[in-house]
Write a structure and sequence with these properties.
Elements: H1 3-15, H2 19-23, H3 32-44, H4 51-63, H5 69-73, H6 77-87, H7 93-111, H8 116-122, H9 126-134, H10 141-151, H11 164-172, H12 179-183, H13 191-204, H14 207-213
Amino acid sequence: MTHQHIIVAALLETHGRTFAAELGARVARNTPSPLFRLLCLAMLTGAPVQADIAMRGARALADAGWTTPHKLANSRWSQRVAALNEAGYARVDERTATQLEVLNERLLDEYGGDLRRLRAAANGEASLALEQLRGFKGIGEVGASIFLREVQAAWPEFYPFIDKATAKAAGRLGLPTGAGDLARLVDAQIFPRLVAAIVRTQLAGDFDRIRDGAG
């Protein structure tokens, strides 16, 4: 086993859970509801809040029953504000509640509420998928990358995908910074977990811990 494989094992043991799995969204099923929930998480990360608060916000939407575009469309702005405020969006709850509505309207109008139509429109081009994702209100480069990193578990035509921030974090761990080279270290079905683990290491700032665990 190479040192890189040892680093990978330490990453997976410490942080090897996708953000979709933490959210409870079974993205690998490739059905509209989990994909929608992942899109909401991607949007919520665009607000000036910490990653754990974004996750709490996404869970709050599900707890309120807004797990599909049509269900969210039936929510009131004041209800969304209250749910987001309780989740920790105290300073940006009103703006985020509005962004959710605008995002949802575009999803319904352009894709019939089904993100698999976005997948078809992208025709296997990651750059086009990212561009389409950035077209949603509140989703920028970071949010679009989050969605594509996680959804490659269900949309294999985008495998292997990593964004620039993930590549940089991988380099700090002594791992390959190219998606293809990084993917060769694990089986395809494990790759989204590895990418998430690298991102979580960046968020936690525990590069030394991972490297020491692999020592």
